[in-house]
């Protein structure tokens, strides 16, 4: 038994080629122009783009502790709909992912209730309080793929340096939320045009760039692999570019919202535009796009951060930071950057598949014979408006409601099993 994905459009060295893919067990067994076989289940994906399953290294699944916002079941269902086959989940849960028991709980739940593969990140400090390091060796043993205090910055340089030394020994990346608490003082939006106009407290760019600068110095001193979360500033990009040129082991991720929106796009007191880091200036946004294009920024992540409708109705000043992103990420990247000619399709797909796999040393992210069968099928033609009410996520907090986008995933296969399939694939892409 096996499955044949029939007549999909594959990217082969930047060119689109129509090919069949035979999947048996959890592997891609064969890729060829025509694969036949009576024993196989045939899924006709004619005319659809077939890519490696997307990998998102920054997702908040909220479980344990904040199940009203999201659960492992709903968050991974949302991932599957967005074409993601692997998600790394951030440790700012309750309890924080700071013990092997919590890592095991998440892996167990993901196995029982999850639609896609879940890779937990372990905390750097106990309860993410920045006071005491976690037992990182034990966390690694339990299965974490990286170490992060995401949600807050590691304030102490000494603690960050100690963490990096241990991370080097364990062969784990340090994934850093870059934010200097002494510079934010209750800010809720970027310190700039919008904060001044609205009379809201601002978060200056330096709150991020000071940590990036500090940590690049520490990464160089310790030899750690230092990965920057949701980079949002032009000066941050400049620091990373310079560090990479000097051979420092630094990598970075960026979110679609920071590439597409800036503070001047915020219509008013609407917390669907509130996230951390905040939407910055036009100049920052342009620098992020240029940084992703030239490889200074390695990958695209969503920073999927669901909150309840009630929480988000509290307005810019009081609502929690964060927007959902799993179900709009690829359509946004495709519509805003591929269709406009700013990026090639291959560039965008690579930054959501092969590159994160390479950076985090994961055995996913490619379509080739012998590879693990993580596959995403995408309809590049149909335009659809973003409607949060249709999301599988519990979170509906997005600034992209009503945006007309193309590039919607229609099928997601994880480890050889179809994790999700759009209803309308049945009409055009019949399953036998
Ligand atoms: N990005 C956000 O705005 N919020 C994240 C935290 C984080 O990723 O820093 C969250 O957990 O809600
Ligand atoms: Zn963060």
TrEMBL record:
Pfam families referenced in this protein's UniProt entry, alphabetically: DHOase (PF12890)
InterPro entries linked to this entry: DHOase, DHOase/Allantoinase_Hydrolase, DHOase_cat, Dihydroorotase_CS, Metal-dep_hydrolase_composite, Metal_Hydrolase
Keywords: Hydrolase, Metal-binding, Pyrimidine biosynthesis, Zinc
Cofactor(s) listed in the protein's UniProt record: Zn(2+)
GO CC annotation terms, alphabetical: cytoplasm
Cofactor note: Binds 2 Zn(2+) ions per subunit.
Binding, Zn(2+) 2: 150, 177, 230
Reaction(s) catalysed (UniProt annotation): (S)-dihydroorotate + H2O = N-carbamoyl-L-aspartate + H(+)
EC number(s) given by UniProt: 3.5.2.3
Any one GO biological process: 'de novo' UMP biosynthetic process
Binding locations of Zn(2+) 1: 58, 60, 150, 303
Family matches, as HAMAP family: PyrC_classI_B (MF_00220_B)
NCBIfam families: PRK09357.1-2, pyrC_multi
Protein name listed in UniProt: Dihydroorotase
Gene: pyrC
